[in-house]
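ESCALATION

Customer reports they have been waiting on this structure for their group meeting. Please prioritize. Original submission:
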Amino acid sequence: MLRLPLALRLALRELRGGFSGFAVFIACIALGVGAIAAVGSLTRALTASIEQEGQSILGGDISFRLAQRTAGDDERAWLASLGTVSQTISMRAMARLPDHSDQVLVEAKAVDNAYPLYGSLDLAGATPRESLFAQMDGRWGIAVEPSLLSRLGVAVGDEIEIGGMPVVIRDTIVREPDRLSGGLTFGPRVMLAPDALAQTGLIHPGSLVRWQYSVRLSDTSEAALRAAISTAAQKFPQAGWNIGSRDNAAPRVADQIRRFRDYLTLVGLTALAVGGVGVANAVRSHLEGRRTTIATLKALGAPGGLVTRIYLVQVLLLGALAITIGLALGTAAPLAARTWLAAFLPLPEGQGAVYPDALAIAALYGGLTALAFTLGPLGRARRVPVSALYRDHVARHAAKAPLAYRFGSLACIAAIAALAIALARQPAIAAIFVAAAAAGFVFLRVVALGLMSAARRAPHLHAMAARLAIANIHRPGALTPTVVLSLGLGLTLLVSLALIEVNINRRLNEQIPQNAPDYFFIDIPSVRAAAFTDLVSATAPGAHLDQVPMLRGRIVSLKGLPADGYPAPPQAQWVLRGDRGITYARDVPKGSTVVAGDWWPADYSGPPLVSFEAELAGELGLAIGDTVTVNLLGRNLTATIANLRTVQWETLGINFVLVFSPSAVAGAPHMMLTTVSFAAPDRDRQEADLMRAIADGFPEVTAVHVREALDTFSSLVAKLALAVRAASGVTLVAAVLVLAGALASSHRFRIYDAVVLKTLGATRRRLIAVYLTEFAVLGAATAVFAVAAGTLIAWLIVTRVMDMDFSFQTSVAATAATGAVILTVALGLAGTWRALGQKPAAFLRSLSAN
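Update from on-call: job pushed to the front of the queue and completed.
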């Protein structure tokens, strides 16, 4: 018969009595592991969905996007040789009621009969494709997103105008298979036929239009896909198209998912770190409850190593249980999110919901955390002699753990930090977070010791309740370090997030609108720019107008290096993706300041020069004299950087990363971009009159209402902030668990105090006053630190990272302080209520018997 090792047999024998005292241990580990496993599993589910649904999301096996031009005949012929081709045309336009009384910015998309090559276009009314977009009774058909109906107050079957052309709404879009690859949109989708879009009059030379050619390859192998991408670059070096493939269908979305994963994983680690305090308290309390057992084992000759192994085995078994619970919760995250995410991105079915790599990482974090916070109490228990174990019932011993145990704890903590940094997308940010968390722990410990020292040196108070409360704060075994450490870290995180959100909203809703124009008008034909200016002047007297030429181009190389392989840091990679707005100017644009180099003369006509935004140039390693190659309308244009300039982006005025010398691009077809700011007294009337006049005289012009765009962005920020706060709330839940565990572990000593004080004549009401004062002081002191530390963190992020002015909000501080005091007092009184009900006689008899 197989005999289990002695330590394991004794550990299992003790655990037969139940897991009393380990509830907080299990909850703390399960919470942190569950959070990390949920983040990892959901991230893997989303990225796996993008990979599995890559063809539907992209619209084909491979796609070629062009800005402001269609593919040439030779390009079309080559694309057709690859397989089945579908052409889509996308641009922003205005949808208006027939009487021009209301209008809304829409994202127009013309699709051919082959669309979609993969997936399906789901419609609420399931209208047949042959009649959906067809021209019937002189009216083309369109399909729209439901939000357009509510915005304009129309219904299916009603008539609206797109670019001045009447169209009929034939159905509403339930799901557009390739919507995710289109990026951020500012209006509802409108789908129509290519011939219908051509008749709207919206497309002119230089219009901001994107053509996409999606290809369903005849040979769908990976080798054929790579060969097509390579051939495209070699055969058409100046095409300027942005090539996408099914294995990276939505790179921006995938990148943001990974960023969010990194942040939430760090939040989960913070929850685990806070929960680690609860783990240490639970193990310490468990060992104190086994004093007699440990003393007996040692008295019978058991070596300290055996005692350590017994309780280490118990901790590992319970830790494995907690990790299993956490992994089960994390595995359920993609399933729970399926319904919510179905409208945006389908999650993989069946076995794809379990991701062993994500679960293994979470389990490793949990195991290391359990060990890191367990070795110390185990080491101290090993050092305590038998005689000390049989001493006074409430004696506390300050034995230190052996060096090996302390080094073991440090090694586990170092492994957690190294793992977090190694797995992060941006290791530098993860390293800063880990360093900040470590510094926070150290500083909170110093704050707790400082608070205890101040309480020890406090003057003698006449009020007994206050005097005993102050004494409880600094006495041996006080709850002060646990309360300050656990609650302080969670509150600091929430205060900093709240202040950052408040400052972002203040920027969006108060500061930016003061300087921003009221409207952007795009796609104004250059030959009619003067007429548009005259219309604005006549319709809205006193309105301020700015107008500049605008083209779209794609950066294809920097300093002679291809953009696809250029070593750009993550924060600067966006400028190398897709096409960018480009302009030319004789003079320095308004809102820009040249900080290096010189601006070209107004009559300059030499080789192409370009002005680059200074901060972005620094991130990309560009300097004056370097070259930038941009593809404009299928031609590569190489220009030399003549100067660098700073840009006041926050004014939302017209400005660009790239500004060329006039002679470089003035001959290229382009449109004009115009901003209009209305005169304050007649703002509403001028706006209404101008929009009607533009609808009548310039139906092809697209109007972007800045206030509505800011509201859309502000709403998105609010949703993200809510999600971040909710995720960060995990640390506060961990803090509550730690506090509950600390109170439970000190229950025996609270009973002793209550019995002694009752024996000396203290009433229940007076004892409640003592504990109420103690916990209120601890909560208030923790809140003061959390507000101070959270404000400092928010100030650094807002002023140094976001480059904005910082405004302190007293409401955030007051909410944090009030919440901390209420939470601490409520948990404290709940944990001591049973101790207050203990009968002195029964406890004294038990004490004398021992």
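Sent to customer with the following note: Confidence is low (pLDDT under 50) at residues 393-397.
Escalation resolved.
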